[in-house]
Structures are given as C-alpha cells and as structure tokens.
C-alpha cells in the first residue's frame, strides 16, 4: 500500500515494546518504535525533518466527508461531491 501511494517511509509502531521479548521471544520487534518505552523520542529521530508537503484532501466514498490536512492540522469537513478531491478512502 505504501508503494501505491508513493510513500517512501512509514512506521507502524510509535513505542518500543520490550514486553514482546518476554512473551513472544521476538527480540527484534521490541525496538521498532520511534520512542523508547518511557515515551522519550530516540535520538536518531529528533533531528528528522519531513519538509513541507502540499495540502491534500481525501474524500470518503461512502460518506462523502472530506478529511484534509494543512499546516500541520487535520480537518474533517462537510460532504463533498467535488471530483477533484482524491478518492483514497473507502
């Protein structure tokens, strides 16, 4: 899915999960987070910048509600039939 939307990097977990080592014996998955278990951001992420992105909107084809992002904010607006809005969400 990341390739379909031209997403170069993504994370599926925010925090380290040391409990996984004790319960599932999956040591490698215990340190996948961007934050330590104590909620402190890992030093290698503290200097990361993502740059400026174009504002974008996604229309839910079921409800026609529009979810948009701009200047670091996320907004849900009223129904739209605008065909120029991306149809990413079903």
Short description:
By secondary structure, the chain is an alpha+beta fold. The chain has two domains: 1-51, no CATH class; 52-90, no CATH class.
Structure, described:
- The protein is of the alpha+beta class.
- The chain has two domains: 1-51, no CATH class; 52-90, no CATH class.
- 11% of the residues lie in helices and 24% in strands.
- It contains two helices and four strands.
- The protein has helices spanning 19-24, 43-46, and strands at 56-60, 65-70, 73-79, 86-89.
- Strands 3-2-1-4 form a four-stranded mixed β-sheet, with no helix packed on it.
- A hairpin with a 2-residue loop joins strand 2 and strand 3 (73-79).
- The two termini are 14 Å apart.
- The mean pLDDT is 71.
Write the layout of secondary structure elements.
Elements: H1 19-24, H2 43-46, E1 56-60, E2 65-70, E3 73-79, E4 86-89
Parallel strand pairs: 1-4
Antiparallel strand pairs: 1-2, 2-3
* Number of helical elements: 2
Task: Please state how the strands of the largest beta sheet are arranged side by side.
Answer: 3-2-1-4
* Extended strand count: 4
Percentage of residues in strands: 15-25%
Helix content: 10-25%
Low-confidence stretches are none
3D shape: elongated
Secondary-structure element series: HHEEEE
How far the N terminus sits from the C terminus, by CA atoms, comes to 14 Å
From the alpha carbons, calculate the radius of gyration and give it in angstroms: 18 Å
Count of separate structural domains: 2
Q: Please, what is the average pLDDT? A: 71
Major beta sheet summary: 4 strands, mixed
Structural class: alpha+beta
